[in-house]
Amino acid sequence: MRKRLLTSIAGCFYYSGLVKVALWWRQRASRQLIILNYHRATGGDLRSHLCYLRQHYRLLPLEQALEELYQPSVPSQRRDWRMPLVITFDDGYQDNYTHAFALARELEVPITLFLIPGYIESGDHFWWLEGQGLVQQAKVGQVELEGRSYRLALAAERADLARQIDARVRYARSVAEREAFLAEVRQALGVAEQRGQEERAALPVTWAQVREMAASGWVTIGAHTMHHPLLGYLVDPAEVRREVAQCRGVLEQQTGQPVRTFAYPIGQPQHIGAHVIAEVKQAHYDWALTTLYGFNTLQSDQYLLRRLEVDVKQHWLVIAAKSAGLWGMFSRLRWNRLIRAYLLHAPA
Question: How many CB atoms lie within 10 A of CB 326?
Fold first, then answer.
């Protein structure tokens, strides 16, 4: 119901001409750069997203777009005055290769992938999928974890356990602590170390796939730490340094190309911190991306670049409204009130 409502609102924006007006205004207001942030590439209609964006925006590789933004005096060899836009995917899911890369080549659309070498090398499931995954694969009927007992026959207690696992690994003080806890949970639940490939698209890409994408000319590779910890919660400054700097070295060695951009895991202010930004600069990245909402201008901090969160499951009309900035014209509170009012009064 909520998805249908949001699509309807986005449709009103688009077919009323508001999207066109908003985009026209942004193109003339100031030099701006839009960066979209995807994660998964399947489960929706990425093709329709890319076709719409290709028609209405000037799609650029990330580094080229940032160079244009911060060096406006550089002569342009184009006569395309559409708003520049960059498409990024965080984490490096397998479907980024099988689906996003395939579409990028077919439609000739440049994309950027922010990758996690530790997961590429291990082939393990990403830690943020482990809570649900381990509980679903549990071989026991009851488990005690950190002083609390969970009865897995009860849906509510299974959900509580999954949330508890996620919270513990999300805010771990080191990667070693996170992995030790996950090993403890696997043992307690009777789940094998390798759970199988129940959803191959959710596994990490391989190095062979990374090299193929990097060599294609349609994919730019960026760094996303070695193991995707929340950097602001790590207690050892040396571990922060390794996660940031080593990631760049491994990616450059594997692809044979320079890695100039970094994306902070999760990417909100509480997950970063001044000391993390200092390490990103020390590692000689040229730019770093957050998940803070917004558009980038010449005045934007090049180590706190903003992105628009989008999802492949969203209708292309929603992508049109978001990329034009219409979604940001309304506060989250107002949207929630509108949705609640609609749901309360909608016919059964």
Answer: 20
For the four alpha carbons of 338, 341, 344 and 348, in that order, the dihedral sign comes to negative
Question: For the whole model, what pTM was predicted?
Answer: 0.91
Specify the pLDDT at position 262: 98
- 117 and 247 Cβ atoms separated by less than 8 Å: yes
Higher pLDDT, 24 or 333: 24
Whether residue 36 is found in the same domain as residue 106: yes
Residues 114 and 237 both lie in one domain: yes
Question: In Å, what is the CA distance from 319 to each residue of 77, 102, 141, 142, 272?
Answer: 29, 20, 43, 43, 27
220 forms beta bridges with 112
Number of helices (H) and strands (E) in the chain: give both, helices first: 15, 11
Please indicate, yes or no, if residue 148 is contained in any of the structural domains.
yes
CA torsion 183-185-186-191 (nearest 10°) is: 180
In this predicted model, what pLDDT tens digit does every residue of 274-291 receive, in sequence order? 999 999 999 999 999 999
Dihedrals φ, ψ of 195, to 5°? -85, 0
146 and 247 share a domain? no
Burial bucket for residue 85 (CB in 10 Å: 0-12, 13-18, 19+): buried
Same domain, residue pair 136 and 69: no
Q: How confident is the model at residue 5 (pLDDT cuts 50, 70, 90)?
A: confident
In a domain, 40, yes or no: yes
Alpha carbon distance 16, 21 (integer Å): 10
pLDDT digits (tens, 9 = 90+) for 167-180: 999 999 999 999 99
Q: How far, rounded to the nearest angstrom, does the alpha carbon of residue 75 sit from its chain's CA centroid?
A: 32
Residue 293 lies in a domain: yes
Number of domains in the chain: 2
- Residues 237 and 117 placed together within one structural domain of the fold: yes
Q: Which residue, among 221, 241, 223, 218, has the nearest Cα to 231 in the 3D structure?
A: 241
The pLDDT value given to residue 327: 77
Report yes or no on 232 lying in a domain.
yes
Mean pLDDT, residues 3-22 taken together: 88
Residues 235-254 pLDDT 10s = 999 999 999 999 999 999 99
**Token code pair at residue 50:** 């890319």
Written as six digits, the tokens of 124 are 């393990």
| Domain hosting residue 105, numbered range | 31-123+211-252+260-314
